[in-house]
Amino acid sequence: MPAWLQWSLIVAGLIASALLVLFIVRQWRILRRARARERSQAAFHAQRRESIVDSLQVLAMAIEQDQVEYSEACLRIKGLLELVAPELLTQPPYQVFQDVHDQISHMPTHQARQDTDRKFVRKMDKERFAVEQQHADAIRRAATALRQHTF
């Protein structure tokens, strides 16, 4: 085999090796960034979950101390439980949050409530207070259970 062919093959092999090393380094960097991004997202989700659990605890304490209307607390708790433990909404004693939500979710809130006729709002409030009164004991029991629940 001629010397020039041997040198050409050696150079081609070195070039191929260098390209493979560059490819491996690039893939390694991409993988390292992806893992860092995953760790960051996992930390964010863990912090968000912890924040939601803290909110649930605060709402449960507010119910126990009669610092919040039961209907409003049920709506908020139902929404938060859907994010961290949706299976609880079908289990006693927590299902009362879902039940109250289902009974009052058709009522206007926020700006829609302000834009609604006052007579209709009073009628809805009367209905909402009746639902609260009907489920008051179950809501308090569920709030106590929620406050003691470990997520």
UniProtKB/TrEMBL annotation:
Keywords: Membrane, Transmembrane, Transmembrane helix. The chain crosses the membrane at residues 6-25. InterPro entries: DUF2489 (IPR019617). The keyword Transmembrane applies. Residues 19-146 form the DUF2489 domain. Pfam families: DUF2489 (PF10675). This is DUF2489 domain-containing protein. It comes from Marinobacter xestospongiae.
